[in-house]
Amino acid sequence: MFERTELMIGADNLERLRSAHVLVVGLGGVGAYAAEMLCRAGVGKLTLSDADRVSKSNRNRQLIALRSTEGRLKTEVLAERLRDINENVSLVLISEYLREERVVEILEATHYDYVVDAIDTLKPKLYLTAACMKRAIPLVSSMGSGGKINPSLIQVADISQSFNCPLARMLRKKLHKFGIYDGFAVVFSPEEVPSDCVREEKSENKRTNVGTISYMPAIFGCFAASVVIRDLIGIPAYEKVKDKRYYHNKKTSITDFEEQMKQTNDVKRSENGRNV
């Protein structure tokens, strides 16, 4: 099935993709498209992580969202689709919300050649990014596609070069506290988000709900997949920062950060136990 791919990138590069293992975290509008493009390009092993089930509200933008798949785990629906594309693809499914300590377990359990961050909330995105950076795992992170409508403005850049993207700005600010200023790719758009397409959301993981048009998350996902594929076969995907500033002038180390998060979670579990 990969005759045209081999014609495009050559047999050696196709073999590099076949031997690669990529972790995709978040299988919504962005992540599912990224995973499918990786599968269609010939990536041999994918670990797919998402706790959600398909809902009716997903159908305007998510690849796996159909009337026939509503209520099913996104990991399982996408796995069926990918195996229907390439019966030889190796898949690992993680159908759970990745708490901080679980991220470390997953990243240290096996070797990943690349990680795709398609998480749409700040806290888990921050922790996954920091954990990947500490372990020198290549990462591409999707910023917000919600509220954007012009695909010609989508860009790939080092996180330090992103601009006019609220999610990227918040992520940069948080990462600076741990001495991370650059060193991984982001897919973002500097397009202004109209205020009338943002609605407050009262949930555990989200403070706002942003309107989304059908094609923007898909394009973000395709951009993310292109970064992974090009990087794996040695084709520059974006201008990388020459003088990386990992952990310079840090207020606290990533190790300290991981320990702080573990202690916070232990306290929360203890409090929940007392409240039962």
Could you walk me through the main structural features you see in this protein, from its secondary elements to its overall organization?
β4, α6 (122-134) and β5 (139-142) form a beta-alpha-beta unit. α3 (31-41) runs parallel beside α4 and α3 (31-41) crosses α8 (215-232). The chain is built from 9 helices and 9 strands. The termini are far apart. Helix content is 41%, strand content 13%. The longest helix is centred in the last third of the chain and has 22 residues, at 254-275. The chain is globular, with a radius of gyration of 18 Å. The model is unreliable at 247-251 and 272-276 (pLDDT under 50). The protein has a single domain, classed as Rossmann fold. It has 276 residues and is α/β, with parallel strands linked by helices. The protein has helices spanning 3-9, 11-18, 31-41, 74-85, 100-109, 122-134, 166-176, 215-232, 254-275, and strands at residues 21-25, 45-49, 90-94, 114-117, 139-142, 155-158, 185-188, 198-200, 208-210. The strands form 2 sheets. It has a 7-stranded mixed sheet, with helices on both faces.
